[in-house]
Amino acid sequence: MKDLDIQEKDGFLVMKDFPENCIFNKVKTGCGATTIALTNNENYIIAVPTTELIVNKCFPTDKGQVWRKRDKKAGLSPAKNLFGLYGKSTQTLKGNLKAYLSGNGTKKIICTYDKIPYLMKLINPKEFKLLVDEYHHFLKSYSFRDKAIDGILKCFKEFKSYCFMSATPIPTEFKPDALNGIPEFKAKWKDLEAISVLPYKTDKPYMIAAKIIKAYQEDGYIEVDGIKSYEAFFFVNSVTEIKQILHQTELTDDNCRIICADNPKNVKTLADYTISSSTDTSKKFNFITSKSFEGVDYFSETGFCFVVSNILNKHTLVSIDMDIPQIAGRIRTKINPFKNKLVHIFNTKLTDSFSTYEEMKQEVEKQLSYAQERADSFNDKESLSEGAVKQAISEIKKLGKQSYLKYDDDEKKLIVNDMLGKLQLYAYMITNEIYSSGNKLKAEYGKIGISASDVKWELAPDDYVKKLISKPIFRDYLKRYCEIMERNPLTMGGERGKIEEKYPFLVAAYHKLGLKELKKLRSIKAIKAALVDKS
After folding, report:
1. In Å, what is the CA distance from 273 to each residue of 217, 276, 315?
2. CA of 293: how far to CAs of 7, 28, 45, 454, in Å?
3. β-bridge mates for residue 132, sequence order
């Protein structure tokens, strides 16, 4: 990998274009790299991993714009010269795209990975540069987006030029074979801000998340290093887990925003809660799935980021080298004092794994070598009958992404699915190595500044997070109030007076509901509802 001298200003890239036919490690998230392709004088296709990222670019909110849900759809952006291509390819969308392509001026198209083969039929690729943004998704998302990723790897060299870009590039050991030999450049920044990671090990990650929310609810904020945070951003890659937190904390649509895929399954899981977008107005509590872990801009003057991982739900496990740096850079508001801080709440494996990473690696390499033998035999058509060929193709297609072999319909031959083996190794490393103990996870954080980027990583003291959630919450005050009133209801002032000053409605609750009923109620909401019923 070669260092690349860049042009920068105030922490942002101000280059006219990217280096061509390469992998580009931009090192920093939120440095305006994608903006280069969106605004320069070159025709560009920008391929991105998620629809949310396209919506975020086509419907910007940094200048206070508010977009209605019905306005946010595929097509030409109402705010800039940018055509967003995603979702179902309707005749109307195709017609609008053709009209855009036939018009005058520079062409800018931002699309999801799966749309590249579709676009190839409508454009002359030699007239467009290709930017594959957040390309580390080739590893992270291969298990469920193999066709889209394979589509890019098959045709990227047909464009005028190509650039695979990420602030967290795929480690060499897991890089797709199709990218071998491509030059790699790394942005050489003059100065980099420190990112403070606050890892917190617990047996019950989501209970800690709930406690943090209740700490916010208590006074309307939490205090971090003497500074008040009024908004919280929770990065949790499980809608089911988010729903559990919502239930535990009694949040409503009024004070929480949930950013996840808008599909029937999630709609059913969330029930009375609305699915939002990154372009919707920020709320006090924001819950974000991997749909928006990277490339999406959030704006908040006091927002604090929390990542929640549960070893019992592998979808929630974040990678220290790829996910954490991306999440740490999501809040773009410059004056936010917490934009470079991140709390990672996690638990670890309860039992030891049966083998080591090296043993797993040897097994995968052995399986890939067997697959190569089978591919060589199959591709030598003289050694197999026509029936045997058809049978092999049928069986491999049924296995799909779970097979170490793939059938290439264009070249009529079998090829080894190298990405399956790499994905298996990567998943094993995260689950059985990194999350095997708190010490190993913290050690991984210690290495990240070297292995992932030049960002300056700092680990906070072990008791840092405890301080955020250690202050008494309403339930603690209520229990103490009931103890005081049970022991001596005639006492005035003192501790009783301080609690009544903080929660004036407790005076009416004691007299109208009685001590026995008050003890049964556990929240401000429940007590106020009971008072309404009594009135």
Report:
1. 19, 9, 22
2. 27, 15, 22, 20
3. 47, 164
Q: Is the four-CA dihedral 440, 443, 447, 452 of positive or negative sign?
A: positive
Over its length of 535 residues, how does the chain's per-residue pLDDT go in tens digits?
899 999 999 888 999 999 999 999 998 888 889 999 999 999 999 999 999 899 989 998 876 778 888 889 999 999 999 999 999 989 999 999 999 999 999 999 999 999 999 999 999 999 999 999 999 999 988 888 889 999 999 999 999 999 999 988 898 899 999 999 999 999 999 877 777 888 888 888 999 999 899 889 888 888 887 889 999 999 999 999 999 999 889 899 999 999 998 899 999 999 989 999 888 888 999 999 988 887 788 889 999 999 999 888 888 888 877 888 888 878 888 899 988 888 889 888 765 554 688 888 899 999 999 999 989 988 876 677 888 888 888 888 888 777 889 888 888 889 999 998 998 888 888 888 878 777 777 777 776 654 444 445 566 666 667 777 766 778 888 988 999 998 888 878 888 988 998 889 999 999 999 999 998 887 888 899 999 988 7
Q: How far apart are CA 160 and CA 157, in angstroms?
A: 8
Q: Distance between CA 282 and CA 297 in Å, rounded? A: 11
b/e burial code for range 210-243 (CB count within 10 A of at least 16 → b): bbbbbbbbbeebbebeeeebebbbbbbbbbebbb
Is residue 413 within 8 Å of 378, Cβ to Cβ? yes
Q: Which residues pair with 109 in a beta bridge?
A: 45, 83
Task: Please state, in angstroms and rounded to a whole number, the distance separating the CA atoms of residues 497 and 481.
Answer: 10
Give yes or no for a contact between 164 and 47, defined as CB atoms under 8 angstroms apart. no
How far, rounded to the nearest angstrom, does the alpha carbon of residue 193 sit from its chain's CA centroid?
21
d(CA 435, CA 318): 10
Q: Yes or no: say if 495 and 476 are a contact pair by the CB < 8 Å rule.
A: no
What are the backbone angles phi and psi of residue 513, rounded to the nearest 5°?
-95, -30
Which among 457, 460, 454, 455 is positioned nearest to 444, based on CA atoms?
457
Specify whether the CB–CB gap between 512 and 519 falls below 8 A: no
Residue 292, classified by CB atoms within 10 Å of its CB into exposed (0-12), middle (13-18) or buried (19+), is buried
Q: How far, in Å, CA of 144 to CA of 381, rounded? A: 31
What's the alpha-carbon Rg for the chain, to the nearest Å? 27
CB 287 within 8 A of CB 258: yes
Residue by residue, what is the 3-state secondary structure of 28-60? CCCCCHHHHHHHCCCCEEEEECCHHHHHHHHCC
- The closest alpha carbon to 219, from 25, 405, 426, 472, belongs to 472
Rounded Cα–Cα distance for residues 419 and 176 (Å): 6
Q: Measuring CA to CA, how many Å separate 246 from each of 214, 229, 277, 278, 357? A: 11, 20, 18, 19, 37
- Show the DSSP H helices in 284-356 as ranges: 323-328
